[in-house]
Specification:
The complex is a heterotrimer of chains A (295), B (469) and C (289). By secondary structure, chain A is mainly alpha-helical. Chain A contains 15 helices and 2 strands. In chain A, helix 4 packs antiparallel against helix 11, helix 11 packs antiparallel against helix 15 and helix 14 runs antiparallel to helix 15. The longest helix of chain A is centred in the first third of the chain and has 33 residues. Chain C folds into 2 domains: 64 residues; 214 residues, Orthogonal Bundle (MetI-like fold), CATH 1.10.3720. The N terminus of chain C is likely disordered. The chains are: A mainly alpha (295), B alpha/beta (469), C mainly alpha (289). At the A-C interface, helix 1, helix 2, helix 4, helix 5 and helix 6 of A face helix 1, helix 4, helix 5, helix 6 and helix 8 of C.
């Protein structure tokens, strides 16, 4: 081989690696970074469908910051997003732990498969189902009437609105996250449990002192994925919102959708998108620092 | 990495060169493909209503248009739930589109973008569209934009919504046709508590409606209140539903909710839900489109010919000042984007849509597929029957139109009621906001969480916050 | 001692009973929707309008399926959907594995840049880039082609990271013999790493399959002609309704539910087939210290 400068030789040595990552890089540049740049450009414009759009500086951002409606949906997004991040991590962990206590293997396997089902269903189907179950003459209220309680129209009570959104999201995602935890549990070295059993630890102690610490890795990954999705809640709200509870549950992405594609204020919608992107980036970096999870 | 043997390295170099070349080739062909875009001489027509009843029928529809007009048509028909998204994207990115369907509200919001070709001169010059016997001048005047130009051509007779009742239940319980709101209340009460379906169970509601509250306009009409925004004497906007005059209507609705005469899921119902409940003996009254009077009867009878089910349109309630008022449907319009390069051809298709042949296509459908013409008489095929004579405009706009098969049971009377009392909504760019605010507060009033006065106050406060007045 | 043990077992029994009841209730909420969809798909038109949760049709009928197949010529969209899903998933697996493999290799110039290129896209909201992506697709001449649907999401941050984590769990010692034989990076990847990564592949494969099979918005945006419709557009077109202008279109609920059943079956099949690999793939792929 000919003598080359250290850098060139490094490049040529790794030429195959570059080739292998090229398709992914090319895709992301073309379909993520260029569009991102375009989005940023549009956010600085009074965007016109035809003809030249004029640049208006940070006007769209200014509008965003002084609109009360924007801050309301931003607040909703934070509340729903944060709850989703935490609950969709810890509740499935709890389910996985209790499922782990079940001795019957057949039950365990079947349950595990069932748990995953809601993940396959689209939000339209899931939404229709829950509206139905929680309707004034639905299953839940039928049970309430049995116990002489008044029937409640859950979906139009403002104080239940956020809880419902969080709960239904949890129901849909729990199974999938739960599988992550179950898999991690089954990977724990059985010898550790045996040792603990000999020491006389009961099942709660075993779960708390052995299983939970072993799950922190999975927990970090789950949280990180949840965080990236947190500000982008859309489908669920689109399907489940109604005007009565809208003020409590309308989220940023819905706001973007309404302003961009229904009110045709594309510049303004882009400004909010850029804002969402920056916040996500910030939060992700923060979470990565805190959990010390690195790519 | 360990150093490789020279021979292997040579081979690798060749392979990597080859891969690089292939990638380059792929990219260049892709780019070349983009540059070579040919300019087809045909009309690209984006619509959510006109065309085949199902996707597979769309190409046949396009061929039929070409056969009848000599113009080649490419039909783009996205699902209506995402129609606005698709249309916006195409218009915003300058896709070559020649003819678009959109409703008057969407058009009002898009006018600021200056996207559409003014059509006034073309309409005046058109023998079909300027014919008063087809479309009266008053109708055209109604859709003139602020600048005095017309930007869209009607798609069909849009009918309107009206009270629809189970007439067989009324007969069975010996009830008279209601006139005042109080009469309506009595009927709803009887439907709820007098076991109109005769099954001995308390399982019926007086009325069932959808979350839009759109349909209940007939009730507000008794007090002559128009839906949406109106101009007051000084020319500024106000919402009639957010005035003191509307209080009795809210009180009526709150009362029927409180007493269990109104099906309680009305906020989360979609139109399919409440239509279905009306058809399955769960409620005696609904408020819906005139065409559905006929469709309700047809659908129920198709499955169970022996059913006593009989839906009928009712006159809207009359108020203390003798007012009755219904809402006619919002206009669906066809428009030509300024950027189009086939404007003449696109306009010809709009014109064709209002000729007799166009009317036949928009209702019965496609010759030889949906219907056949035997000895001058139309005969629907099996497919045609399933398509229920709707291929974009089941009731054409043209005053000349007479359906060769007659209309479905109950439609004619219902359409008559709409013609008598129907008034179209004034279209403003803020209608979406009006919907959101009014529905939200009205729902709270009806459920009794706030008083009508409180609700009206918050409606006006929210309109002000949105910068409308 | 005896009593303590005894007490513990009673406690354990109660705990176990409560536990199983809790899990059963949870499972019920997940099964009932499926049974309901299935039951309604086999009802008669009129019965399907009844607004109740049904677990069995009162009168068994396949009219919903007949209508579904007659009114939507579903064979075409089904074929298109299969083409897009299968080829898209396969290419996705290959490209993401390659990229994931590159990221586990020791430092090379530009690695940090590569990591940024790959992780940032996950944070870009899709609604923001709809219009620019459409413009790019058109520049490539891909509007109204099935290729556009294959190309969109052909690589994803999630899959690349998952494959990378999976590859990291493979012991380095396995590749050493190959390297001594003088194999280059591609051979190490194709002959050593890829065959060992079946669970990881199954995992991203399933996720891709599900999301591609259910894709909707990209198809609405990029596809114009009827003969290129994919399943979800065809199904959605069945149910046309607009609130502001009068509509006369309606299709009975049984046909809509039949549509859901037809669209779910392939997903269930793939899930059952790949389940074994899937779970262990998720485990190693996602868990990383």
């Amino acid at each position: 081989m000919k003598k080359k400068s250290p850098l060139t030789s490094q490049f040529s040595r790794n030429r195959l690696l570059y080739l292998m990552i090229l398709p992914a890089a090319a895709y992301f540049i073309t379909f993520s970074f260029f569009p991102l740049a375009d989005g940023i450009k549009m956010s600085l414009q009074d965007f016109r469908f035809v003809g030249a759009s004029s640049y208006i500086g940070l006007e769209n951002y200014r509008t965003m910051f002084i609109t009360p409606g924007f801050w309301r949906v931003f607040g909703n997004t934070l509340i729903l997003g944060l709850s989703n991040v935490l609950l969709t991590a810890f509740v499935p962990m709890f389910i996985a732990l209790s499922l782990n206590e079940v001795a019957n293997r057949g039950f365990k396997r079947t349950f595990q498969s069932i748990l995953y089902l809601p993940h396959i269903l689209s939000w339209v189907v899931v939404g229709g189902l829950w509206v139905f179950i929680l309707s004034p003459n639905g299953l839940v209220n039928a049970a309430r009437v049995l116990f002489d309680q008044e029937s409640i129209y859950f979906f139009v009570v403002e104080k239940y609105a956020r809880g419902l959104m969080i709960g239904i999201n949890l129901w849909k995602q729990a199974g999938y996250v739960c599988i992550l935890f179950l898999a991690a549990i089954s990977g724990i070295n059985p010898e550790i449990y045996e040792a603990a059993l000999i020491d006389g630890a009961n099942s709660a102690q075993r779960a708390w002192y052995i299983t939970v610490p072993e799950l922190t890795g999975t927990l970090k990954v789950v949280m990180l994925l949840n965080v990236m999705g947190a500000l982008r809640i859309f489908d669920q709200i689109y399907v489940l919102r109604n005007e009565v509870i809208a003020e409590k549950i309308d989220v940023l992405m819905y706001y973007v959708y309404i302003h961009g594609l229904e009110q045709f204020k594309i510049g303004y919608a882009s400004a909010i998108s850029v804002f969402i992107f920056l916040i996500t980036l910030l939060v992700t970096l923060l979470v990565r620092r805190v959990t010390k999870y690195h790519v | 990495m360990k150093p490789m043997k020279p021979k292997k390295s040579m081979k690798m170099q060749k392979i990597s060169l080859l891969i690089a070349f292939l990638l380059l080739f792929a990219v260049t062909t892709i780019y070349a493909g983009g540059v070579e875009e040919a300019k087809p001489e045909k009309v690209t027509w984006v619509t959510s209503v006109q065309g085949g009843r199902e996707p597979a029928e769309d190409p046949l529809f396009a061929e039929e248009v070409e056969r009848l007009t000599g113009i080649e048509v490419e039909l783009i028909k996205p699902p209506s739930s995402e129609y606005d998204t698709k249309l916006t994207t195409m218009l915003a990115t300058g896709e070559p589109v020649d003819l678009v369907y959109l409703n008057a509200g969407t058009m009002a919001r898009l006018m600021e973008q200056d996207l559409f070709e003014p059509l006034t001169k073309r309409i005046e010059a058109s023998p079909v569209l300027s014919d008063e016997a087809v479309i009266p001048q008053a109708e055209w005047d109604r859709i003139k934009y602020e600048d005095g130009e017309i930007y869209g051509v009607f798609n069909k007779f849009e009918q309107g919504t009206l009270p629809i009742v189970r007439y067989d239940w009324m007969e069975k319980l010996g009830l008279d046709e209601p006139e005042t709101l109080e009469d309506y209340y009595e009927i709803l009460k009887a439907f709820t508590f007098d076991d109109p379906d005769g099954n001995g169970k308390d399982d019926t509601y007086g009325m069932v409606i959808g979350y839009t509250l759109y349909e209940t306009n007939a009730l507000f009409g008794a007090y002559d209140l128009a839906r949406g925004f109106q101009h007051d004497a000084k020319g500024s906007l106000y919402s009639p539903y957010a005035t003191e005059k509307a209080v009795p209507v809210y009180e009526f609705l709150a009362r029927v909710y409180r007493e269990g005469l109104l099906e309680p899921n009305f906020i989360t119902n979609n139109s399919a839900n409440f239509r279905d409940m009306f058809m399955t003996d769960q409620a005696g009254m609904t408020f819906y489109w005139a065409a559905w009077v006929g469709l309700f009867n047809q659908t129920v009878k198709a499955d169970n010919p022996a059913s006593p089910f009989k839906a009928r349109g009712l006159n809207p309630p009359v108020g203390p000042d003798g007012h009755r008022r219904l809402l006619s449907g919002q206009d669906g319009l066809m428009a030509i984007p300024r950027e189009s390069e086939n404007k003449d051809a696109a306009f010809k298709i709009m014109e064709f849509w209002h000729t007799h042949q166009g009317n036949i296509l928009s209702t019965l459908g496609i010759d030889g597929h949906d219907y056949v013409l035997e000895n001058g008489k139309y005969k629907l095929t099996e497919i045609g029957k399933q398509h229920a004579m709707d291929h974009g405009a089941p009731q054409p706009k043209s005053l000349q139109w007479v359906n060769p098969f007659g209309e479905l049971e109950g439609f004619d009377e219902a359409a008559e009621i709409i013609l008598n009392y129907g008034v179209p909504q004034m279209v403003t760019p803020y209608d979406k906001i009006w919907e959101d605010v009014t529905r939200s507060e009205a729902a709270k009033i009806i459920m009794g969480t706030i008083t009508p006065q409180q609700g009206i106050a918050s409606m006006n406060r929210r309109f002000k916050e949105e910068g409308i007045f | 001692m005896y009593s303590r043990l005894y007490r513990r077992t009673t406690g354990k029994r109660i705990f176990s009973a409560v536990n199983i009841t809790f899990l059963m209730i949870l499972a019920m909420t997940m099964i009932i929707p499926f049974l309901n969809v299935l039951a309604v798909s086999f009802t008669t038109n009129l019965e399907s309008y009844e607004n109740t949760i049904k677990l069995f049709p009162r009168e068994f009928s396949i009219i919903g399926y007949i209508n579904l197949f007659r009114r939507v010529a579903i064979a075409g969209p089904l074929l298109n959907n299969t083409i897009v899903t299968v080829s898209g998933t396969l290419i996705h697996i290959l490209l993401c594995s390659m990229a994931g493999f590159v990221l586990v290799r020791s430092r090379f110039p530009g690695k940090t840049l590569a990591v940024v290129l790959i992780t940032v896209p996950m944070m870009i909201p899709f609604q923001m880039i709809i219009i620019p992506v459409f413009v790019t697709m058109r520049r490539f001449g891909l509007i109204d082609t099935l290729s556009s649907l294959i190309l969109i999401d052909i690589v994803s941050t999630f899959s690349i990271l998952l494959m990378k984590n999976y590859f990291e769990s493979i012991p380095r010692s396995l590749e050493e013999s190959a390297v001594i034989d003088g194999a280059n990076e591609w051979i190490v990847f194709a002959k050593v790493y890829l065959p060992l990564a079946k669970p990881g592949i199954a995992t991203i494969g399933i996720f891709q399959f599900v999301s591609r099979w259910n894709h909707f918005l990209p198809a609405v945006l990029f596809i114009n002609s009827t003969d290129k419709y994919t399943l979800q557009i065809a199904l959605k077109s069945l149910v046309v309704s607009s609130e502001l202008t009068s509509t006369t279109q309606s299709v009975a609920n049984n046909a809509r539910m039949a549509g859901i059943v037809v669209s779910i079956i392939p997903l269930l099949l793939v899930y059952i087939l790949a389940q074994k690999y899937f779970i262990s793939g998720i485990m190693v792929g996602a868990v990383k210290e």
